[in-house]
């Protein structure tokens, strides 16, 4: 991943072009990024099955996901099987689309698991591959439900 000025001038790079890896600061398949109000960069590393956070100087601050960044199927809180998207919500919350586990997971900014919602299926509140997630200013969560060909909307209870 690279940071460029508006005119395309190179500023810095995270990871090494042409090389992937599971070590801190390396990527397998980065799929999404977001900046928080402090200038921290959150990166969804899809096949690395984790979130990595870098400060405004490009230094790794923290990372979270499953053990050894392995993709494990199942409802393990805080673990991913291909994290495809992330969004920052009100109160420094982080929402992630956990593609193969058919759910959205919510975390605090430090990576502490808060909740998960969605499950495999085609009914209301069910997902067939959560592709992307977005959060409105009021905390409403939207996700693209890939194989069900729809967008779903959740309104979380206060305190979630």
Short description:
This protein has 160 residues and is an all-beta fold. 0% of the residues lie in helices and 46% in strands. The protein has one domain (2-154): Neuraminidase (6 Propeller), CATH 2.120.10.
Tell me about this structure:
The structure is a single chain. With 160 residues, this protein is mainly β. The protein has one domain: TolB, C-terminal domain (Neuraminidase, 6 Propeller), CATH 2.120.10.30. It is 0% helix and 46% strand. It has no helices and 15 strands. The strands form 5 sheets. A 4-stranded antiparallel β-sheet has the order 3-4-5-6, with no helix packed on it. A hairpin with a 3-residue loop joins strand 7 and strand 8. The chain is globular, with a radius of gyration of 15 Å.
Key phrases:
160 residues; 4-stranded antiparallel β-sheet; single chain; mainly beta; Neuraminidase; 15 strands
């Amino acid at each position: 991943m690279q940071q460029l000025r508006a005119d395309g001038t190179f500023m810095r790079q995270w990871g090494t072009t042409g090389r992937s890896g599971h070590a801190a600061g390396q990527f397998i398949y980065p799929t999404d990024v977001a900046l928080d109000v402090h200038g921290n960069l959150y990166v969804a590393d899809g096949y690395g099955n984790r979130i990595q956070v870098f400060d405004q100087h490009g230094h790794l601050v923290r990372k979270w996901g499953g053990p050894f960044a392995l993709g494990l199927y199942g409802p393990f809180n805080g673990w991913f099987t291909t994290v495809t998207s992330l969004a920052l919500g009100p109160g420094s919350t982080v929402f992630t689309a956990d593609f193969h586990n058919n759910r959205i997971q919510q975390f605090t900014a430090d990576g502490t698991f808060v909740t998960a919602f969605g499950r495999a299926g085609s009914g209301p509140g069910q997902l067939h591959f959560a592709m992307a997630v977005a959060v409105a200013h009021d905390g409403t969560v939207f996700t693209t439900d890939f194989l069900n060909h729809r967008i779903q909307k959740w309104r979380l209870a206060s305190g979630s």
